[in-house]
Amino acid sequence: MNLKELNKIAEAMVAPGKGILAADESTSTIEKRLSSINVPSTEENRRDYREMLFTTDGAEQYISGVILYDETLRQKGKDGTPLVDILNKRGIIPGIKVDKGVQPLQGSDGEKITEGLDGLGKRMAEYHQLGARFAKWRAVLTIDAATGKPSRQALVANAEALARYAGICQANGIVPIVEPEILMDGDHDLATSFAATERTLHTVFEYLAIHNVAFEGMILKPGMVIQGEKAKKAASIDEVADATVQVLKRCVPSAVPGIAFLSGGQSDELASAHLGAMNARHPNLPWKLTFSYGRALQALPLKLWGGKAANVANAQKGYLHRARLNGMAALGKYEAKLESEFKAA
Ligand code: 13P
Question: Partner of 282 at 20 to 30 A CA spacing, among 55, 70, 171, 319?
Fold first, then answer.
């Protein structure tokens, strides 16, 4: 393992004022996104949509890397240039989602395990050859205080898979994004989310240590500590920010270069405001706090694009707007009034 090189990539992924675009929707997820704008999910439409994002002028000021799906890593743009080259030319690092999605975790009460470890070393070597310099593996956990979820079984099984994946990444010169996502589904309060996040991160870092993963050469991608989407009371922006930073301080070693949050179904504005508040209120943390958003970066440009070439310029403006505001949030400079700076044409 070349830890110096891994650390250099990880540091670049969380460079000041920059974060990651998650554009690694699986074939079934991108189909859902495209059908929301009445566009059929053909290979060409998927390519056109993602090429629209990747060719946005100026996005490289705020976007350090893009997580791709297998198909996209191999795709060429309209003029025949590989999409990976389009990103590299702008100084944006290509990454790759390598997990194969979730399956039922047998013996549990409806919890999930992420699969994809078999043959991963071989796939990883090919991904490196195709230009990927970082990867993503997403574990999915749920909160249910009544039944004790996430269960110890789900935590251990998923933490071990994340750790084995991370070790395979690092052996192949690829920085692992370690993503234990705790879904916002449910009516739990902030304290319940805090406790579940704390148990999850302690377990994840225990297994990363068991599998000798080098913390300097990885990025953590957690959700924020936030109440369930059906909770009666919503915590304030500052409460979410403070709780999230507190749990990270308890669990994440300072050798980790950065923490890049998922947006997890938060609105675009809240995802920016929460990240902004964390960085504004807690300026001297041992790791960078930034974004690795899918929906909170793409919802606006997806809608503006609508599958029409004539809308590309406007959709790119929308994407740049969200990227810029999240970049400012990563610097602690986000303000709600910046939201009004974008006007759709
Ligand atoms: P969201 O920001 O839409 O949650 O997606 C990020 C991601 O990569 C989830 O795996």
Answer: 319
Q: How far is CA 7 from CA 12, 23, 74, 205, 272, in A?
A: 8, 23, 26, 18, 26
Range list of H helices, 282-341: 295-305, 312-330
Tell me which of 63, 261, 262 to substitute to probe ligand 1's pocket, judged by most ligand atoms within 8 Å of the beta carbon. 262
What is the pLDDT at residue 343? 86
Q: Please work out whether the CB of residue 262 comes within 6 Å of at least one atom of ligand 1.
A: yes
Q: Which atom of ligand 1 is nearest to the CA of 138?
A: 10
DSSP-derived secondary structure for 31-61: HHHHHTTT----HHHHHHHHHHHHT-TTGGG
- List Cβ neighbours of 186 (8 Å cut-off, separation of 6 or more): 142, 143, 144, 228, 229, 230, 231
Among 53, 136, 292, name the best residue to mutate to test ligand 1's pocket (greatest count of ligand atoms within 8 A of Cβ). 292
If one counts every other C-beta atom within 10 angstroms of the C-beta of residue 129, the result is 9
Q: How far apart are CA 242 and CA 131, in angstroms?
A: 37
- 10-38 burial, b at 16+ Cβ within 10 Å, e below that, comes to bbbbbeebbbbbbbbbeeeebeebbeeee
The residues annotated with a catalytic role in the active site are 179, 221
| Residues 77 and 55: beta-carbon distance below 8 Å | yes
Q: Are strands 288-293 and 19-22 parallel, antiparallel or unpaired?
A: parallel
CATH fold, domain 3-341, is TIM Barrel (3.20.20)
pLDDT block averages, 10 residues each, the chain of length 345: 96 98 97 98 98 98 98 98 98 98 98 98 98 98 96 98 98 98 98 98 98 98 98 97 98 98 97 98 98 98 97 98 98 97 86
- What are the residue boundaries of the structural domains of the chain, listed by start? 3-341
- Dist. CA 210 → ligand 1 center (Å): 27
DSSP 210-245: HTT--GGG-EE-PPP----TT-SSPPPHHHHHHHHH
The HSE-up count of residue 147 (CA atoms within 13 Å, CB side) is 13
Whether pTM > 0.85 for this model: the answer is yes
